[in-house]
Write a structure and sequence with these properties.
Helix content: over 70%
Strand content: under 5%
Oligomer: single chain
Shape: flat
Structural class: mainly alpha
Number of strands: 0
Length: about 190
């Protein structure tokens, strides 16, 4: 339980921001942009899908389902798709794609596999939650690499515009979408 409770922390959003900024300032500016954009776009899409589908956590759907109790306090909000999985596969998959060192790549891929498994092990997500989130992260890894790293022409204005429009669309959705009356208000607020 302790091992997977530690591993699951590798999927927290602050980690992609810190590592992305480290790459941006200390390693390679374009690689930093790549990692940060994967994280930012992934987070917006992930949170939109959580509110769109509103799928409760496994123990909420089935009261006989047991989880690692220490994970309950931080597992707020809806279950589908897994934010930790999205963040970790995007972050560590991004590092694996931009670094040439085989040892670094192997470590990053292992983390990409362990974090989603940890989310299921501690009981806060289902296989569908983590598979969809990992799939979304992989799509971002593939789509954004040629856009950000592929040519010398800067696509930053386009990327910033797309990201801003997605952010505005997400805020409008939250503000104006009429959620059903039978919704779990505590989960929605979270």
């Amino acid at each position: 339980d302790v091992f997977f409770s530690i591993i699951t922390k590798f999927g927290e959003e602050t980690l992609f921001i810190l590592l992305g900024l480290l790459f941006f300032w200390c390693v390679n500016k374009k690689q930093g942009y790549y990692i940060l954009f994967i994280g930012f776009l992934g987070t917006v899409v992930n949170q939109f899908l959580k509110l769109w589908f509103r799928i409760p956590r496994p123990w909420v759907r089935d009261e006989s389902f047991t989880i690692v109790e220490s994970a309950r306090a931080e597992a707020t909000g809806y279950s589908f798709p897994s934010g930790h999985t999205q963040s970790s596969v995007g972050l560590f998959g991004g590092v694996a794609r931009v670094r040439k060192n085989i040892v670094v790549r192997i470590i990053m891929i292992i983390i990409c596999l362990l974090v989603p498994f940890s989310r299921m092990y501690i009981g806060v997500h289902t296989p569908l939650d983590v598979l969809v989130a990992a799939g979304m992260a992989i799509i971002l890894l593939v789509v954004l690499k040629p856009i950000i790293l592929g040519n010398t022409k800067s696509n930053m204005p386009v990327l910033l515009t797309v990201m801003s429009l997605l952010g505005i669309a997400y805020m409008c959705f939250i503000e104006f979408y009429t959620f059903p009356a039978d919704i779990d208000a505590h989960n929605l607020a979270s």
